[in-house]
Amino acid sequence: MNRLSEADSSPRAQPWNSQALEPGNSAAYEGTSAEESRHDEARAQPLRTLPGIAVGCLPAEVWTAVCEALRQLDLIDSVEKYGLGLIDARPTATNTNRPDPIFTAHSILRLSQTCRYLHQATSPSVMEYIRVCPIKPIRSPEWSCRSPIGRIKSLHLNSDQRLKLVRGFAVGIDSAWIFERVDPIEEPELRSQIHDLLIRLPNLHHLTVAGIALDAPLMQRISTLPLEHLGLRIFGLDNSMTHLPSTPMTEPKVKLRSLVAYDCSTWGKPKPDANWVRQLMGPTLQDLTLDGSFWNPSDLPVLPDLEFLRIPHELNPAAVSPSMLSGLLSGSPNLKEAVLLVPLGMRHPYITFPELPHLQHIYCPFFWLRYLVPGRPITTATVMCDPWVQLEKVCEILSEGSGSLRDLSLDYSTPGPEFEWSPDELEPVVRHFPELETLCIATAGHK
Question: What is the DSSP string of 41-110?
């Protein structure tokens, strides 16, 4: 246990559910004794109820259910205290393909420390999802890397048998130092530690990496993992990489169901090649969030199972055009929800989008409506409108859908002339959508 404490001499005064792995909690990921380490294989066998022990009077399945309930409570508590954290993504009512954010279940960790039986019973739940990020406050840019390095070294002390239990792993550093144009000198070591740990996680299916400049070995390792869910907030490439090969570095093994990738490259760092991200997108993908800088119009993927598409606000709106999006959607006939936060000017000529017979939910600026709505069964729409956009025009386009609109949200919160809504001005909504159930209108400072 002393080895783990020495690996990270960070402050101990943390919230009970701090998402950083405190030294005391990190120690729990190692076997509690040398004897336990010699019996990893035995611990991997199905747990049997122990007669004569109070906690053993309950079937192991009950403790499994208790662990899952504690995990959900930890998730709710963590989101309230810390926000979504490394990647701004979580399941929604209309998008259940996306997994929950990765948070360490500290409540289960405390339960596992009560006795040998519960340690064995809760071990799979303790190791299933692990998140590593700096402990606050961060005293220097170097500490933003040094803190996660110590925690990953602690995880390396676990046996291979225990690391096989890890199905979700999230790692990130504080991006505040990157925004201040400071490159922590420990970042290469952090990348190396992450790379070596990923080698020992053969059953990993959910990975999040945020705030870290990638390098070739780490990118290649990610490509070879049997992942189902991948979240990336990429702060460029390591400065030693001037470019990436134009062909994939290795045949990818990922069979992703969801991919979230943001390009946050700044200040002269090499940008990740769109081809590397492209090779991660395969026919199994159902949920895709991708910056416009990762799109290659000449090599758009065919995604027959894609149900949810999100293109976040792009600093360069020209990166996403109607023709590019039409080409992507032509290979995604099962799309159900489109969130397009990219502004679109009037300079683009109108083109007809693919049929999209299953598209029901849209979230987009006003100008995208003429491409997405006509002839499609839209039931839920959130429309971002400039102050000059007339409500009558919005309703006219939305009424061209083939479905019955049930929920409508209009966002007029863009700064502009202030105006008051009167009941008479809502007449187009009542006239065009008699089956509407929910109407929300947001203006600057009001909702």
Answer: HHHTSPP-PPTT-TGGGS-HHHHHHHHHHHHHHHHHHHHHHH-STTS-----SS--SSPPPP---HHHHH
End-to-end, the C-alpha distance of the chain in Å comes to: 54
Banded model confidence at residue 120, pLDDT cuts 50, 70, 90: confident
Smallest CA-to-CA distance from 142 within 171, 111, 185 is with: 185
Please name the amino acid found at residue 52.
Answer: G
- Mean pLDDT, rounded, of the chain: 75
> Residue 433 gets which letter from DSSP?
-
Neighbour tally for 119: CB within 10 Å: 18
Q: Which residues pair with 337 in a beta bridge?
A: 308, 361
The lowest-confidence range among 1-5, 69-73, 311-315, 382-386 is 1-5
Number of helices (H), then strands (E), belonging to the chain: the values are 17, 12
Give the tokens for residue 26.
């990190």
* Percentage, residues of the chain above pLDDT 70: 67
State the angle between helix axes of 216-223 and 187-199 in degrees (0 to 180), rounded to the nearest 10.
Answer: 20
Helical H segments across 200-272, by residue range: 216-223
User: H or E stretch including 347?
Assistant: none
- Residues for the chain: how many in total? 447
242: left (phi over 0), alpha (psi -120 to 50) or beta: alpha
Q: Alpha helices of 340-420 — where are they, by DSSP H?
A: 369-372, 391-398
- In the sheet that 229-237 helps form, which strands lie side by side, from edge to edge? 129-132, 168-172, 206-214, 229-237, 258-263, 287-290, 308-311, 337-340, 361-365, 380-384, 407-412, 438-443
Q: Dihedral of the CA atoms 371, 372, 376, 377 (nearest 10)?
A: -160
Which residues pair with residue 75 across a beta bridge?
none
Both tokens of residue 214? 């990638």
Angle at 229 between CA 378 and CA 381, to 5 degrees: 15
Is-contact 282 304, C-beta < 8 A?
no
For tokens 């090599």, the residue is 299
Neighbouring C-alpha atoms within 13 Å toward the C-beta of 313? 3
pTM: 0.78
According to DSSP, residue 36 is labeled H
| 108 burial type by CB count under 10 A (0-12 exposed, 13-18 middle, 19+ buried) | buried
Strand partners, 383: 364, 410
Pairing between strand 206-214 and 168-172? Answer: parallel
